[in-house]
Design brief:
The chain has 418 residues and is mostly helical. 79% of the residues lie in helices and 0% in strands. InterPro entries: MFS, MFS_dom, MFS_trans_sf.
């Protein structure tokens, strides 16, 4: 549900917000400005990660995750009520940015927390599988956002949708938050955190202790995960803008194509995580890093053919390859830190990676594209990011020897030694 909120904004930024909030700019500049507001949410995510990580390590995972859900829903609902530029002028994009910050802070506390809650409840031999379940929320939220976006557009008509009906999917967030709270309030606290609290292992400043993992290890961990975020947001957000404005694909075709690929992403995560539990997550992550690099080299050339069939192939390939690294990266990051500081440390790495990867990717891609039609610069950008992450993953796994805990159930006393 939180990813629904976040991706709904991304879809609207690609297709609607340039006209609603930046009408005085050229089409290229308006798109770049809309993607800049998308990036603002990512910049706020490390702040949310630090705040929620601190309280998640001090007070518990469960309560912080409830607050993050409420913040996301509130921010999204109010975005649906922001007047357009034509009504209040400059205040319209200002309010949009402020609410985007609220969204970013909320999601910053969610990413690591949900993964830890699931992973720390895992039974023996299924730790990667359980850690992968929250990652399924990413493609599920994307599909839900796109389908509601398309349904509203279809029922209201394109002109009405562009004028005001685009607000309806955002206002529906209020209903989804109510459903989410019913579910989340019934979840028990993490057994690992409960044990750390009972043994008086809770520390006063978790982030300071988390940084004791050392700059080299933190840097290569960050480098290893940054490409997945960049590729995912180019695929999910920038492709919509590029395909409609430069390749002539209609909006509905692209949104449905990305949604179909997200379904593949969703259903393949349990498959990949089961393989990780059997064969080891490191082998899976390295193989996935190579695969995503190779597919990024051909993704835009396939789209540029202008063929719908080839475009669907390109999108489906992304839907199958992105989850290979995405499904285990949370567990890889979490094993950098002991239980008592795991929320703070994981949030720090995950959210900085999201800023450097996904937050900047649509904006950088738009700038590389400029007013022309060549996607070559975007392709080289993605390939370069993937190469950096592959190097980071290899360096990380050589720096830290693999231990049995990476395949075993979570045990608080040994988790920090992974």
């Amino acid at each position: 549900m939180e990813w629904y909120d976040f991706f709904l904004y991304g879809t609207a930024a690609a297709l609607i917000f340039d006209k609603q909030f930046f009408p005085d700019l050229s089409p290229a500049a308006g798109t770049l400005a809309a993607f800049s507001t998308l990036a603002v949410g990512f910049v706020a995510r490390p702040l949310g990660g630090l705040v929620f990580g601190h309280f998640g390590d001090r007070l518990g995972r469960r309560s912080t995750l409830v607050v993050s859900l409420v913040m996301m829903g509130l921010g999204s609902t109010l975005i649906g009520a922001v007047p357009s530029y034509g009504s209040i002028g400059l205040w319209a994009p200002v309010l949009l940015v402020l609410l985007r910050v609220v969204q970013g802070i909320g999601l910053g506390g969610e990413g690591a927390g949900a993964t830890l809650m699931s992973m720390e409840h895992a039974p023996e031999g299924r730790r990667n599988l359980y850690a992968g379940f929250p990652q399924m929320g990413t493609p599920a939220g994307l599909v839900l956002a796109n389908l509601i976006f398309l349904a509203t557009n279809s029922l209201a008509g394109h002109a009405t949708f562009t004028a005001w009906a685009w607000r309806i999917p955002f206002l529906l967030s209020f209903v989804l938050v109510g459903v989410g709270l019913v579910v989340r309030l019934r979840v028990t606290e993490s057994p690992s955190f409960d044990r750390a609290r009972q043994e008086d292992e809770v520390v006063r400043f978790p982030l300071a202790d988390a940084l004791k993992a050392g700059l080299p290890r933190l840097a290569v961990t960050l480098l290893a995960v940054v490409a997945n975020s960049a590729v995912a947001y180019v695929f999910m957000v920038f492709t919509l803008s590029y395909g409609t404005k430069h390749l002539g694909f209609d909006q509905q075709f692209l949104v449905l194509g990305v949604s179909g690929a997200a379904v593949l992403w969703f259903v393949s995560i349990p498959v990949w995580t089961k393989i990780a539990d059997r064969k080891g997550r490191r082998t899976l992550f390295i193989g996935g890093s190579v695969a995503i690099l190779l597919w990024c080299a051909v993704f835009f050339p396939l789209l540029d053919t202008g063929s719908r069939a080839t475009a669907l192939l390109a999108l489906a390939g992304m839907g199958l390859i992105i989850p290979v690294t995405h499904c285990v990266q949370g567990a890889i990051i979490a094993d950098t830190f002991p239980v008592r500081v795991r929320y703070s440390g994981t949030s720090l790495v995950l959210q900085i990676g999201a800023v450097l990867g996904g937050g900047l990717a649509p904006m950088i891609s738009s700038a590389l594209l400029g007013s022309g039609d060549s996607s070559t610069g975007v392709t080289w950008y993605l390939v370069g990011m993937c190469a950096l992450s592959l190097v980071g993953a290899v360096a990380l796994f050589r720096m830290v020897p693999e231990t049995p805990v990476e395949r075993a159930p979570l045990v608080p006393e040994t988790a920090g030694k992974a």
